[in-house]
Hints:
single chain; rod-shaped; Exocyst complex component 4
Amino acid sequence: MDSPPTKPPRGVKTTKETSGLLMSVIRTLSATETNEQRDREKAKLDNEFKLCDRRLDDLVQKHEGDLTQVMTIFSTLSQQVTESREKIQKIKKNLQACKTLLHCKRDDLKKLWIEGLEYKYMLQLLEEIEKMHEIPIKVQTHLSKKEYLHATKLLVEAANLGKDNLEGIEGIKELKTDIEQKKEELHLILLNELKQQIYIKTSQHVLSLSRQSSQKEGGLNSQFRRSNEFRMSSRRNISRRIFQDTPVKFQGKFDEFDIEEDLFVLSQENDPSHFVAILVKCLALLDRVPYAVDILKSDMKSELLNIAQRTTIFINDFKNYRDDGEQNKLSLLVEFMQTLFEQFRQVAHAHSLLLRCFQRAITAHKIDVKLYDMHMYWTQVQFVIQNLLHDYLDIQNSTVDVQPNDHFTDDLENLSSYFSRRKQQPKKTSLFKFDDSSSALTMNSNLKETKQDKILVCTPDINNILHIFIPLMCFVEDIEESMGLPHGSKCTLHQFLSGYVTNTFLKRKHTETKAAIEEVTHTKDAWKATVLLDVTVDYKPLLVSVVTVEKTVTQWQAILQALPMYGEHIVKYACDALKEFRDTCHAAYRGIVQPHTEDRRICSAAWLKDDDISRFLKCSI
Length: 621
């Protein structure tokens, strides 16, 4: 059996043998003249037809299975194509109907779409309003735990939310007003907390350490006996600062102020340095840094004065456990000064940290504000100390007849004018009096309270400088070092102390010494009154004037130990007093032994027997 026909390769055209054969048969039949030729051709065609028929039958029989499979697949595909055509026709009809319907309901659909958007926006607004209603409660919860950063972020977020989306809604005007009021209250709370951390917490920390050390040592001021102990004690608590040297680990670059608040700690104030940074961050978020800086600068002096007042009350509490002797009161004054100086050092360290936080916040949030510096702080500290010295040294009464130095005259005059007592005006007769009116009674009560508020740890006295000068100068050295003054430059407090000691205290003591010597040497029995200081047999009685001079010299020695920086002035004043006493004694002796100028060589025989008088005569001659 012949092989089945194969598909010709693509691009090759098959010859149409059937048509050619048919035309050849037609030409042959038309060209033959006899029937015999036609019969032969017919027989030939019949044979070839039968041959083809047999071949076709063989091929059909041979490929019957394939044909059946092909026909089945073809019928299936034909049916699917028919069904798909029907579906496509149906879809076309449906789409056409939808197009017609949409065209008819276009306005209704547009209206529904717009309503859907409105409902979506309204739901969003309702969610935001609900969040805003929850914010006051959340803020109050955070404030109760002193979680100020979270409370600030909530208020700032609520304010921005109400400004952007809820501006025209009438129903939340009261809520927005409440949130703005919360913001105003919060920045005042933050500022108060900042003052608490900078001034009150630090001072309480020093006072608690002072109380503990006093209880352990059995009394106040037991460590303040020598000058080197003053210096050591003034730096004793520096290692126990409430603000650590490496306070806050800021995240990010310098132009970023990223600091986080931990909600899982027991108290936010356990780390004071981090807490101060949190407060500054909150003020920056509320845009209240310029206001806070202005308040801190304006209240710095009053806060330092409050520290001095609290320290005074603290020191006075110990008077109940001690005697009321003069020495104990002076020890209280020294303890007061030392404790106050340590508090000022701690507050200075806190201000240094605060300025670093402010500088970071200003850079990160691009705030236009001029910060204060530590020079301003130490200036206020010096003012407060000078104010205290005016009280404890009784400068108002001791500087009446003594003029200060030229280099600090202006400062002292300003300070004196600020704290000096007002001169009483001459009384004027008035036709009407309002002493019993409500305003007059209120004014009188306020004046009484002002006078009673000023309490001291000891009696004001010019001699108090002898006990507090060394710790004062130690603290002055710290101030000058902190201010970075050039070599040879002195701070205002240093100039004030130098002027007071040289022009007020030492001159006052010199005047008192001269007055005491003059009093004892010009009395009626100045050269007869004696006193026996020692009861031994060999000890001779001494003149009262000599004993008085010896006491004044001893006083000058004590002054020299207390004011070692002014030894030259002290020795000069002591020598002047001794020289004046020597001249007075010499003149008195000559008046006794040589009453007449022409009789200088005649001496009393009884006086010449005395060894001391003979030696004095030899020295004078």
